[in-house]
Amino acid sequence: MTLTDLNTGFRDDKQQRRVQRVIHDRLADDRDPQECRFLMRFWWQLVMSYQEVSMDELSRNVGGPKLDVIEALIAAVRSPHAEVDAWIATRSTSSQ
Fold first, then answer.
1. Average pLDDT for consecutive 10-residue bins of the chain (96 residues)?
2. Whether 51 contacts 58, CB under 8 Å
3. Of 22, 71, 88, 92, which has the fewest CB atoms closer than 10 Å, so is most exposed?
């Protein structure tokens, strides 16, 4: 699955930045440098139109619960904008 279309799935820059903030603050834990590196590459993927990271790389380098959160985000970004808002609300209050 290509991830190069994600940058076009947001209502506006504000929504995109909110998603990036959740990834940075809630998911990218620098105690696991390898996982953090790939989560931050995904963070960049949300604003870039080129391939920064692949789904295969994420699957190999990001732990199960966090990978589930990323997959839910990808589905939300490819859905109506309200789905992204719901993802943000859920992740802003949960531990992952």
1. 92 97 95 97 95 96 96 97 97 70
2. no
3. 92
Q: How many CB atoms lie within 10 A of CB 51?
A: 12
Q: What is the C-alpha to C-alpha distance for residues 93 and 22, in angstroms, rounded to an integer?
A: 10
Q: How many CB atoms lie within 10 A of CB 78?
A: 13
Name the residue with tokens 């290509």. 2
Three-class SS state of 74: helix
What gap in Å lies between CA 22 and CA 20, rounded to an integer? Answer: 5
Q: Which amino acid is at 92?
A: S
- Per-residue burial over 11-39, b if 16 or more Cβ lie within 10 Å, else e, is eeeebbebbbebbeebbbeeeeeebbebb
